[in-house]
From TrEMBL:
Keywords per UniProt: Membrane, Transmembrane, Transmembrane helix
Transmembrane segments: 18-36, 42-60
GO biological process: transmembrane transport
InterPro entries cross-referenced by the UniProt entry: Iron_permease_Fet4 (IPR007251)
Domain of life: Bacteria
Pfam family, one: Iron_permease
Organism from which the protein derives: Mesorhizobium helmanticense
Lineage: Bacteria, Pseudomonadati, Pseudomonadota, Alphaproteobacteria, Hyphomicrobiales
The protein's name: Low affinity iron permease family protein
Length: 114
């Protein structure tokens, strides 16, 4: 199911998919004079849900790629601590605590070198 969702999101996030959605919405809107207002409302609601899903899936993919790249940088640098790799999977409270710790260390380092 994930492969199907990602394939649909990939198609709809490109110009041809966008054109298909525009044509579908135009056809739905053209049906209003024929008394098919319910069909148009339904079709446009489904289109809005699909577009929202595409945005969420693309956002997930972008975020996952950014995390992978950052993890690669962290692992590649000998001076870094590898305990932050995979932190995005931790509990939100743990992430917040770790962020506060890193920010405090950054302030200490900037005060010590300034």
């Amino acid at each position: 199911m994930n492969k199907l969702l990602f394939a649909v999101a990939e198609f709809l996030s490109r110009p041809p998919g966008f054109y298909v959605m525009i044509i579908a919405m135009a056809v739905s809107t053209a049906l209003v004079p024929f008394g098919l207002t319910n069909v148009v409302t339904y079709a446009l609601s489904v289109a809005a849900i699909i577009i929202t899903g595409v945005v969420l899936i693309q956002g997930y993919r972008d975020t996952a790629a950014i995390h992978a790249k950052l993890d690669e940088i962290i692992v590649a640098l000998n001076e870094t601590r590898n305990d932050v790799v995979g932190l995005e999977h931790a509990d939100p409270k743990e992430i917040k605590a770790r962020l506060a710790q890193v920010e405090a260390e950054a302030v200490e380092l900037s005060n010590g070198s300034g």
